[in-house]
């Protein structure tokens, strides 16, 4: 693993729609880029700009039944989106 790639978990490409709720923003709909046992990456093309360390709630959309709401933490920001880590429940 290179110094630039410190991820613990293997990522799997996943294009899903998720609703992301942040205390300072209205709920927004985003696409995921990948998922791992540790978290997900959401692709953001607008002014949604949480800070690293902020907590958000994420729910997968478009399933036949409502998906559970997951509590996640923003762990990184890139030019095209955010890395979110699952919080221990």
Can you describe what's shown?
- This protein is mainly β and 89 residues long.
- The protein has a single domain, classed as Thrombin, subunit H (Beta Barrel).
- Helix content is 0%, strand content 51%.
- The protein has no helices and seven strands.
- It has a six-stranded antiparallel β-barrel.
What is this structure's SSE topology?
Layout (H helix, E strand, L loop, with lengths): L11 E2 L3 E6 L2 E11 L3 E5 L11 E6 L9 E9 L2 E6 L3
Antiparallel strand pairs: 1-3, 2-3, 2-5, 3-4, 4-7, 5-6, 6-7
Structural class: mainly beta
Tell me the number of strands: 7
Mean pLDDT figure: 90
Number of helices: 0
Low-confidence stretches: none
Count of structural domains: 1
Helix content: under 10%
Strand order of the largest sheet: 2-3-4-7-6-5
CATH topology: the name is Thrombin, subunit H
How far apart the termini lie comes to 29 Å
CATH architecture, by name, is Beta Barrel
Q: Element order, helices and strands?
A: EEEEEEE
Q: Please indicate the percent range of residues in DSSP E strands (runs of 2 or more).
A: over 45%
C-alpha Rg (nearest Å)? 13 Å
Keywords:
89 residues; mainly beta; 7 strands; Thrombin, subunit H; 51% strand; six-stranded antiparallel barrel; 0% helix
In brief, what are we looking at here?
The protein is an all-beta fold. Helix content is 0%, strand content 51%. It has a six-stranded antiparallel β-barrel.
């Amino acid at each position: 693993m290179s110094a630039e790639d410190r991820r613990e978990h293997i990522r799997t490409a996943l294009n899903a729609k998720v609703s992301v709720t942040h205390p300072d923003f209205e709920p927004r709909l985003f696409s995921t880029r990948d998922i791992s046992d540790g978290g997900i990456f959401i692709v953001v093309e607008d002014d949604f700009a949480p800070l690293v360390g902020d907590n958000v709630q994420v729910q997968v959309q478009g399933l036949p039944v409502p998906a559970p709401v997951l509590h996640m933490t923003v762990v990184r920001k890139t030019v095209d989106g955010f890395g979110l880590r699952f919080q221990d429940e």
